[in-house]
Structures are given as C-alpha cells and as structure tokens.
Q: What sequence folds into this?
C-alpha cells in the first residue's frame, strides 16, 4: 500500500502527542524525586494534562473553525511544542502542573481537526483508512517511542523526555508546512453553530459508546502491570516487552479497523469490535493465569483498543455533518473520559480485595453496555438511511411520471 505523503504530518503530530501522553506514566518516580514530591502528587501531572485535553478540545476548535485547517493545525502544534519544551525546564511542581495543563490543550483539537482533514484528503470509500493512518503515529508512539523515551528518561534524566517530544513537534511543524494541502474553511460557522450537533440523540449515543464501551478496555490496560506480574507470572524486568507487544497490537489493530470500516461500514464494524472486546476481556478474566494465553490476549486487546478509533470517528462525523471538527474534538474528550472511567471503575474490585484479573470483569460489563448502545445507534442510522432511500425513490417516481 502506497502511503500518501500528505497524511504523514498528521501521523508525526500523533507520534508526538502519544509520546508525551503515555511516557509520563513510566517516569513518575523519577519526576517525583527531582521535584521533591510524592508519586501520587506526580500523578496529578497526568490528570492536569487530561484536563487540558477535555477543556482545550471544544474551545480551541470553537474559536478556530473560521480559519483554514492547515493554519489551525500549525498553530496547535506550535502550542504543543512550546509547552512540552517548557516542561523540560520547569523548576518546580506548581509550574510543571500548569505547563502540563497547557500542554494538553491542543491535543484533542489537533486530532479533531486532523480527523476531518484526513477524511477530506481521502478518496471516496477510504475515509476510515486515512483516519487510521493519522492515528498510526499514536500507535507507533506506544510501540516504540514510549519504551525508548522511558529508557532514556531513566538512564539520563526525565527532562530529556520532554525535550525529545519538543523535537518531534518541530518535525511535525516542518512537514505540516511542506506537505499538508490548503483546504477550504467554512467562514459562516461560529462557536454556537458548531455545538448544535449536541442536540442530536445520535451524537450522544456515539459519545456514550466511546466513554463506556471503549472505557472497558482501560479497566484492563490501567492495571496491566500487576495483572501480568502477579496473575500471569511475568517477571517485572520483562514488562517492557509486554508493553511492546501491546503496542504492536495497537499498530495492527488501528490499520485493520480502518480497512474493515471502509469495507463493512463503520456501524457494523463498531458492533463487531465491541463484541470482540467483550469476549477478549472475558478471556483475560478467566485465562490470565496461563502465561502464553495471557500474552496472546495482550496483543489482541492492544489491537482492539485502537481498531475502534476510525469507525467511531466516522460515526460521529455522520451524526454531525456540519460540525465535524467540533464533534471529533468531543470524541477526544470522550476517549479521555473512557480512560478515567476505566481506571476508576476497574479499581473498585481491587479496593475490595479481589485479584488483579477482576478489573477486566468490570470491562466486560462496560463493553456490553457499549454494545447495546451501538446496536441502538445502528438501528437509528439504518432507519434514517431507509427513509432517505424511500424519499429518493418517491422523487424519482414522480419525475418519471412527469
């Protein structure tokens, strides 16, 4: 498959965003030691970034819809690059907390605008594939950059982690300028107009599928280290290889989800993937004590975690045809809600004293709820499509009679 070079700048941006979002988790002890804070306090840096994503996505897109997408993406990547570079020199905890919040602001907006740009650049019937190609940067970050940068941060200093992200941001800016085409913008749009998609039931159904159904996988991923070391018997010094295995699954699943969505349609693909998520999480709960099966499920769950990205974004754009960028930005907020909800709900059985495979049982329930909502969405979308087809046929019939 020949890669369209126009999509590469978006993938590089995704690489930088994925690296900064996920590497910090492995470097919390190092950051806590340098800033003289506790590890739970260092964990607030993750929450500050996530809060920036949720707040920044709708507001930055809301006030940038009148500008050309290329200029918007460049501006967002400038913000991302500057504040990640500043994270490398932040002198204390409070300043780091503020900078991490500001670093998260462009995250959701970048993917929101990027999703629409990718779909516009794609030929007919390839929209989901192009969106998955954009998210390839995010998956490669989990496969290669996160383990590499975590290692560099441990061996040398965690500040190198932010410096490397800043360099990735500079490359993204360069290729955005060189290779991303200039696309038209809707100058008549405004903030309140963009938010009208929230009046539609279908929009809320997609957001619920994302936050609840997709959140089921975060019950597994949030506690993967104790699951693999305590239940599956993997040695702690081998967990880096387990995370690479999960990252490899994400790369494969992301591309497979895009291709499958273009062939089957996003609604059918979403239902299928949620069903497979439910089965896989059930497998994690019942079979994690068998090491080789557990490793296989790690790859499968990693693949499923990213396979839904393209079809679910296409579903949202269909539900919000005049507010695609804002809708895609809300999707990023929903994904972050899924992360937080999965970690919180998955932690409840652990607080009650249950074993580390029990969070995945919570995930089974969450994905089942997501599956029910996906069926409802498919029912609504199919009925609307049938009505449009009936109206079209009636119009053709009237024309023929005349």
A:
């Amino acid at each position: 498959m020949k890669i369209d070079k126009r999509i590469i700048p978006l993938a590089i941006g995704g690489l930088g965003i994925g690296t900064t979002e996920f590497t910090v988790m492995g470097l919390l002890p190092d950051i806590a030691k340098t800033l003289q804070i506790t590890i739970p306090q260092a964990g607030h840096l993750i929450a500050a970034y996530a809060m920036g994503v949720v707040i920044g996505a709708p507001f930055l897109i809301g006030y940038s819809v009148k500008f050309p997408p290329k200029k918007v993406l460049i501006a967002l990547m400038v913000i991302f690059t500057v504040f990640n570079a500043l994270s490398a020199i932040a002198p204390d905890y409070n300043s780091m907390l503020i900078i991490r919040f500001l670093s998260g602001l462009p995250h959701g907006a970048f993917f929101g605008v990027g999703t629409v740009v990718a779909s516009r650049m794609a030929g007919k019937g390839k929209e989901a594939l192009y969106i998955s190609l954009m998210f390839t940067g995010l998956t490669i970050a989990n496969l290669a950059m996160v383990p590499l940068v975590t290692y560099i941060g441990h061996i040398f200093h965690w500040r190198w982690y932010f410096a490397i992200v800043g360099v990735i941001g500079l490359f993204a800016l360069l290729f955005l300028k060189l290779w991303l085409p200039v696309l038209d913008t809707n100058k008549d749009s405004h903030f309140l107009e963009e938010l009208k998609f929230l009046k539609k039931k279908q929009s809320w159904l997609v957001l619920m599928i994302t936050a609840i159904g997709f959140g089921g996988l975060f019950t597994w991923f949030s506690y993967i280290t104790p699951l693999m070391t305590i239940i599956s018997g993997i040695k702690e010094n081998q967990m880096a290889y387990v995370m690479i295995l999960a990252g490899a699954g994400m790369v494969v699943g992301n591309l497979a989800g895009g291709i499958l969505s273009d062939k089957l349609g996003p609604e059918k693909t979403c239902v299928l993937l949620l069903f497979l998520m439910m089965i896989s999480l059930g497998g994690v709960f019942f079979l994690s004590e068998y090491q080789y099966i557990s490793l296989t499920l790690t790859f499968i769950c990693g693949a499923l975690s990213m396979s839904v990205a393209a079809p679910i974004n296409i579903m949202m754009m269909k539900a919000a045809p005049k507010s695609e960028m804002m809708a895609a930005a809300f999707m990023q907020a929903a994904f972050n809600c899924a992360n937080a909800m999965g970690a919180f709900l998955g932690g409840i059985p652990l607080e009650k004293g249950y074993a580390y495979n029990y969070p995945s049982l919570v995930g089974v329930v969450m994905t089942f709820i997501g599956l029910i909502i996906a069926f409802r969405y498919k029912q609504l979308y199919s009925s609307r499509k049938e009505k449009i087809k009936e109206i079209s046929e009636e119009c053709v019939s009237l024309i023929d009679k005349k």
About this structure: The radius of gyration is 21 Å. The mean pLDDT is 83. The CA atoms of residues 34 and 92 lie 9 Å apart. The longest helix spans residues 358-401.
